[in-house]
Amino acid sequence: MLLPATLRQGPPPISHVPFLPGHARLDVIQPMLGDLDTATTGGRRYVMGKLLAQLDDAVSAAQHIFPDVQRRALRSTLAVMARESERMLPDADAFARGARTITAMLSAV
What we know:
Elements: H1 29-38, H2 41-62, H3 68-86, H4 92-107
Helix pairs in contact: 1-2, 1-4, 2-3, 2-4, 3-4
């Protein structure tokens, strides 16, 4: 059934909540890591993708603070985590170790 033009909804409203900087969103990482243990393979990939996006944003926002060696280590850890998330049967423990390493480095700032 098609709705008349007057009843159609417009675009979603714009949020007036300011976006938080990347390092301020690190508190959501630990609960999401707990979801990896109970998720199915598809759910595990979904959660890993969400975690990668959060961590990539946080690393990008804070990379100017770190020296070059630590920046490369952060990016390398993200790349390893991305490869793990793309595997047929991703290893949740290996992924979680990388996520904890990144959050520890970012939290120390």
